[in-house]
Amino acid sequence: MHEMSIALAVIGQVEEAAERAGDVTAVRSVRLEVGELAGVVPDSLSFCFELACAGTLLEGAELLADPVPGRARCAPCAHEWAVGMPPSLTCPRCGGAAGDLLSGRELRITAVHWEDGATPAAPTREPIAEER
C-alpha cells in the first residue's frame, strides 16, 4: 500500500514547514492536488493519513484532496482531451498518439492550515512540496 508512504511523506514535509515557521502548535488541514493518473486511491490515502498523524503535530488534521483530471494534447493536430480512466492516449480527432500528457500525474501539497502562538489557523500561501 503505497498510500501509507505518501501519507508519511506528506506528514514529514508539513512537519518540516511547521518547524521552519516557528511557533506552530497544531496543524488543522492539509490540501493536496491528486491527479487521476497518479495511482493514488483517495480513500486509502485519507485512511493512512489519519493513522500516520497519530501522536504528531498533525493529529486530528483533515486531509483535503483536490482531484486533477488527466488531459492530453495530440502532437499532430493539437487537439486536447480528457484521457479518463483507464487512460485513452489516442487522439479522438485524428487517431494520433498523444504527444503530451498535460495533467493528471500531480501529487502535491498546495496548502496547510495551522495554529501558532499568534494566529489561529494561519494558512501557508505557497506549495511546500513539488510534483512527485
UniProtKB/TrEMBL annotation:
Keywords: Metal-binding, Nickel, Zinc
GO MF terms held by the record: nickel cation binding; zinc ion binding
Positions that bind Zn(2+): 74, 77, 91, 94
Gene Ontology BP term (one): protein maturation
Pfam families linked to this entry: HypA
Residues where Ni(2+) binds: 2
Family: Belongs to the HypA/HybF family.
Role of this protein: Involved in the maturation of [NiFe] hydrogenases. Required for nickel insertion into the metal center of the hydrogenase.
Name of this chain's protein: Hydrogenase maturation factor HypA
Organism: Streptomyces mangrovisoli
Gene: hypA
